[in-house]
Model the fold of this input.
Amino acid sequence: MRSPLEIRNHWFLVLTIGSATRKRKVSWGAVMPNTPRTDPSTAATMSRRRGAELEDAILDAAREELAELGYAKSTMSGIANRAGTSKPVLYRRWSSLPELVLDTLGSRFADVPVPDTGDLRDDVLALLRQAQTNLANTRRDTVSGLIADTANDPRLTQRLRDLIAGSTLSNAMATVLERAAERGQIPPGPWPRRVITLPISLLRDDFVVFGIRPSDADLTAVTDEVFLPLLGYASPSSAVRDSEHRG
Done:
């Protein structure tokens, strides 16, 4: 038999522990003043995004992450947080960070209007200014990081090669050359692919290798001193002079 004193102490201990437990349950369930809350409408919008809308949000988030942190510090988790989604959602679309970054850069270079000023020189300069803008919006470490991370993946290496070779710009350049040939400004093609891509490649290589972003003077020099002479370009003014001389 327990003594009255032992019984009293036992129930005192039980009541004390029970009270403390109830207090802890209340405190654990309470919302702390500094705990960030997600706006229900924002959360609902995030959960409803699908398809192209969600992909655009992820690509925008990737651009922000790359611009702010650089390629080396960018992560799939960080991009998912910026996009308001989860990392598994990203991995359902892209198997790796390099693949996502390639799509991010590719979306920026996707639409290149083909200039048609009526003169080859002006058209070439317009396209090179587009390349200049693309390089101005791209961090050099993003390209160098992709080169390193895709070195052992032939598929991604080819995608990167197409991207930094400016395949979209090069296709536009081919159209510009065809129109110039129809106007009689240059001899008709076909032109080797390396000739078509030459001015863009020169600007790109200066950026990737040396970190030099092309200036307007660089664009003019590449056009007037390298590309147009290679094509046998006859400027409108020189064509007039030749006609007057023959007359």
Q: What stands out?
A: The CA atoms of residues 3 and 98 lie 75 Å apart.
